[in-house]
Design goal:
The protein is α/β, with parallel strands linked by helices. The chain has 10 helices and 10 strands. A hairpin with a 2-residue loop joins strand 1 and strand 2. Helix 3 runs parallel beside helix 6. It starts with a strand and ends with a helix.
């Protein structure tokens, strides 16, 4: 399976604070890759570096033949990468429909894309005129994902999408990620909890101190739970 997105020896951080130290990572076409690690390990910073939201001081981030570190941040989504940050970051005063429209404008998509996205999240179809700030937490997460998918991305970056959600909503998010994989969308998923990861991931990258310590197939992880304890300290 070909690598779609690659990070090679990336250094990045915030001002004087370096977070990523030689981060290398490869996302294959049509897979779900989970980044697992303790708080502060560099998982979210990795996603932000891909999106151009933190400054990279060394290394390469490539989507196919495109060197993303040379693009301004607002051009990265146009290259085909969508980002759902932790905390969703919706426009709370805008309606569901208006939030989706912002996503569609990114790459000039229209009604066909919107309908395809709404088919994934039928509940949003009933809420199009509702202000997004009045949705439940689970519905807001769905809207954040739906807005990202309006970009028609090749790569989707999800930062802790199941945080604070009910089990039924967590299952719905997992199903959506699996459906997207069937449609050829490649996903990088940041999670704290290994139990949220195992049902949906193809591979898991263990992030420690700003580096990718090891990337393993999820089958190996199921067979050897000690790996998780070694890197994350939990079973």
């Amino acid at each position: 399976m070909a690598d779609l997105l690659t990070l090679e020896k990336v250094d990045a951080g915030y001002g004087e604070v370096q977070v990523l130290r030689g981060m290398s990572l490869a996302l294959r076409k049509g897979e779900v890759l989970c980044l697992l690690g303790l708080n502060g390990a560099g998982k979210t910073t990795t996603l932000k570096a891909i999106m151009g939201l933190v400054q990279t001081t060394a290394g390469s981030i490539r989507l196919g033949d495109v060197e993303l570190t040379r693009l301004p941040a607002h051009e990265v989504p146009k290259a085909g990468i969508a980002y759902v940050p932790q905390g969703r970051r919706l426009f709370a005063e805008l309606t569901v429909a208006e939030n989706l429209e912002i996503g569609l404008m990114t790459r000039g998509r229209g009604d066909v894309t919107r309908e395809t996205v709404l088919d994934l999240f039928p509940v949003l179809r009933e809420r199009l005129k509702q202000r997004s700030g009045t949705l439940s937490g689970g519905e807001q997460q769905m809207l954040a994902m739906a807005r990202a998918l309006c970009v028609e991305p090749d790569v989707l970056l999800l930062d802790e999408p199941t945080e604070g959600l009910m089990p039924s909503m967590i299952a719905r998010i997992r199903e959506t990620v699996a459906t997207l994989r069937e449609r050829g969308v490649s996903t990088i998923l940041v999670e704290q909890r290994v139990d949220a990861v195992l049902p949906v991931a193809d591979r898991v990258a263990f992030i420690q101190n700003g580096r990718n310590r090891e990337t393993v197939d999820v089958e190996k992880l199921r067979a050897d739970p000690a790996l998780v304890r070694h890197y994350v300290g939990v079973g």
